[in-house]
Amino acid sequence: MEGLEFNVSTLLQQVVGESADYEVAVDEALDLDGIIARLITGPVRLTRTNFGILAHATLDARLGLECDRCLDPYEARVKVDFSEEYLPVIDVSTGRPVQSERADETFLISPNHIVDLTEATRQHILLSVPMHRLCREDCQGLCPTCGVNRNTRSCSCVEETESPLSALAVLLEESKP
């Protein structure tokens, strides 16, 4: 995804502590394992470290979600704030491969010296998706009998008030002196 990729060849030649600031504005959709994120925006700071590049991003995204109660689609806004380290695979000065013991623990800078924040963004947005997805707090959901969306229509179904635990309530009443 082009808006989340940054060429860091110049930054890799700088002294430790140098940084570059960018503004992300991605209009295209990003598929997050079935959840679609779009309009990803926000600032990114790339800082030269003694090992590679530290990327710090504060991004806003709009997610296309489905309400857990009424099953209607809705849009939610999330904000993620993360820092991830990227290690080079090619030395920018010599062009030789770089060996790192930490390569399995972190993200890698491509052989073309590109830092791609797509995977880090995907992971952090997925972590920010609400566990209980509601289109609104007072969502009435679907009728368990006829399946009508109670937010848009009312139904004449009689709600079953007996619960599976009602037998325990009877026993509790019987045990009272």
Task: Give the topology.
Blueprint lengths: L4 E3 L1 H4 L6 E8 L3 E3 L2 E14 L4 E14 L6 E16 L18 E3 L4 E3 L1 H11 L37 H10 L2
Parallel strand pairs: 6-7
Antiparallel strand pairs: 1-8, 2-4, 3-4, 4-5, 5-6
Features:
177 residues, mainly beta, six-stranded mixed sheet, two-stranded antiparallel sheet, 8 strands
Write a compact overview of the structure shown:
This protein is mainly beta. The protein is built from 3 helices and 8 strands. It has 2 domains: 2-139, no CATH class; 141-177, no CATH class.
Helix and strand succession?
EHEEEEEEEHH
The tally of domains stands at 2
General shape: elongated
Mean pLDDT, to the nearest integer, reads 87
Question: How does this structure look, described?
Answer:
- By secondary structure, this protein is mainly beta.
- The protein has 2 domains: 138 residues, no CATH class; 37 residues, no CATH class.
- 14% of the residues lie in helices and 36% in strands.
- The protein is built from 3 helices and 8 strands, in the order βαβββββββαα.
- Strands 2, 3, 4, 5, 6 and 7 form a 6-stranded mixed beta sheet that branches.
- The mean pLDDT is 87.
